Amino acid sequence: MWSKNWKRRLAGALAVSLAAAVALTGCGPKNKGEATKVRIGEVTRSIFYAPQYAAITKGFFKEEGLDIELTTTPGGDKTMTALLSGGIDVALVGSETSIYVSQQGSGDPVINFSQLTQTDGTFLVSRKPIQGKFDWNQLKGTTFLGQRKGGMPQMAGEFTLKKYGINPQKDLNLIQNVDFANIPTAFASGTGEYVQLFEPQATMIEKQGKGYVIASFGVESGKLPYTVFMAKKSFMDKNSGTIQKFANAVQKAQNWVQKSSVEEIADAIAPYFEDTDKEVIRTVVKRYKDQGTFATDGIVDEQEWNNLQNVMEAAGELKQRADFKALVNNQFAEKAKQNVK
Prior knowledge:
- This protein is 46% helix and 16% strand.
- By secondary structure, the chain is of the alpha/beta class.
- It has two domains: 4-119 and 224-339, 3-Layer(aba) Sandwich (D-Maltodextrin-Binding Protein, domain 2); 122-221, D-Maltodextrin-Binding Protein, domain 2, CATH 3.40.190.10.
- The strands form two sheets. A five-stranded mixed sheet has the order 2-1-3-10-4, with helices on both faces.
- The longest helix has 20 residues, at 4-23.
- The termini are far apart.
- The model is unreliable at 16-25 (pLDDT under 50).
- One of its GO terms (cellular component) is periplasmic space.
- It is found in: Periplasm.
- Belongs to the bacterial solute-binding protein SsuA/TauA family.
- Residues 1-25 form the signal peptide.
């Protein structure tokens, strides 16, 4: 489960959230014709979120009269704390965080309203090239450098391993005590025979000749509401017009990403990855585009929501099943899909 420190931060943030809800005045513009400011907190900076960056650089948010302030709040705990305490208006984070908040007893639930990615974004990387066809059973008895316990990457990873009859705790030497940001460095320096990595780190490790991408956890774990824009219910109730404009902009970006080439998408998001080689950006965009990672609309599908909870249950991270209708509001995404062409 998430750390005790996270639980303490969450409890404090929930208290602040209740006070903030009473004083909430909305985020509308002060003057007619003025853009409405919306503060987004993304859980990490990743090419995985390409449609979000395209929505900004291609002017889709601006067309809807929104002025976006984007900040990166590393980790689901920090992102959720920022949302609950009023530091941001909208969070881009895994749907499991809204379930964790709900199970802590929040009186102002966090609502998923526009989905951005629909598969896990991690890949299995081997230190040595695989001879012949890869078999997941080759992992048995090896040292596996995994993701943080309680997060979706780790849960999707374990779900996949169990699908192939591998018990992560018994069949592997499983390492989960390395911070997210340090996992690529740890693997590159010699830790583990296999590692579960996000992009662009997986591609960069491959280009450096220090590993080989051999499988996709996104393909193996199936479709999930993996990364979703969400906001507190009180904020959405006060700012429904803004939420609709936000959903419209996201849908415009999703339409654009679907019809655009890898090169065009890479060019659009490159300003957010100035330290990443352009060829790496193109490789990662193609990999995600080819496997259908980017959602084609913002609607959170109930079947995908149930698959998410299956993954969480398999990892032992779900106290009880969360009500789809209580934590998901698709009306904005459905209207955007219908009206945005």
